Amino acid sequence: MRRLAVAVASAALMAAPAMADEMWKTDYGQVIWEKDYDGGAIFKIDLAGGGVGRLYIEGLTTEVENRAHFKGYWISTTEEDMCSAELKGPDGTKSRTWGTLTLSFLSPEFPSDWVLMTGECLGAPDSLVAGHADTGE
User: Fold this and answer.
1) Is the backbone peptide bond immediately before 108 cis, with ω within 30 degrees of 0?
2) Which of 10, 47, 51, 103 has its CB surrounded by the most CB atoms within 10 Å?
3) Any idea what DSSP says for residue 25?
4) Partners of 74 in beta bridges
5) C-alpha closest to that of 10 among 41, 56, 49, 50
6) Per residue in 89-101, pLDDT tens?
């Protein structure tokens, strides 16, 4: 359970100009598409205790019309040092609490729910998080 919370936090999240309104509900809080980077997207989640988690999803901004499966990594700004090395994201977020991720959209169209698999440090993804599209309704 700790792995999942930290992974979601770290992996946490989002923002493309056309997609900036994308949000998802998870058991760990609301995930937002914060911004884009070199063909990828950053999703953000505000964590309990004041930390922030970001998900760096590679290739997502080049495949917005046909979303499927994406790989990437997460970084959490919690105080816990989970990994032996520090990882720094393209937005400058850095921490020793990070891991791998695989994000799978359940539908290619907007809005879509997704399933996120996360792992700690360089480990294979082994924890599951469900994201439900938040359309404000």
Assistant:
1) no
2) 10
3) E
4) 55, 99
5) 56
6) 999 999 999 999 9
Cα–Cα dist 19/9, whole Å: 21
- For every residue of 45-76, DSSP letters joined together read EEPGGG-EEEEEETTGGG-TTS--EEEEEEEE
- Please say whether the beta carbons of 54 and 47 come within 8 A: no
Tokens representing residue 78 in the block: 């919690």
Encoded tokens for 12: 């946490």
Displacement of CA 104 from its chain's centroid (Å): 11
Determine the structural domain holding residue 118 and report its residue range: 2-133
| DSSP character string of 71-93 | EEEEEE-SS---SSS-EE-TTS-
Q: How far apart are CA 68 and CA 53, in angstroms?
A: 22
For 49-68, what is the mean pLDDT? 83
Token pair 């082994």 in the structure block, residue = 126
| Structure tokens given for 103 | 């994000």
Domain count, the chain: 1
Q: State the Cα–Cα distance between residues 95 and 112, nearest whole angstrom.
A: 30
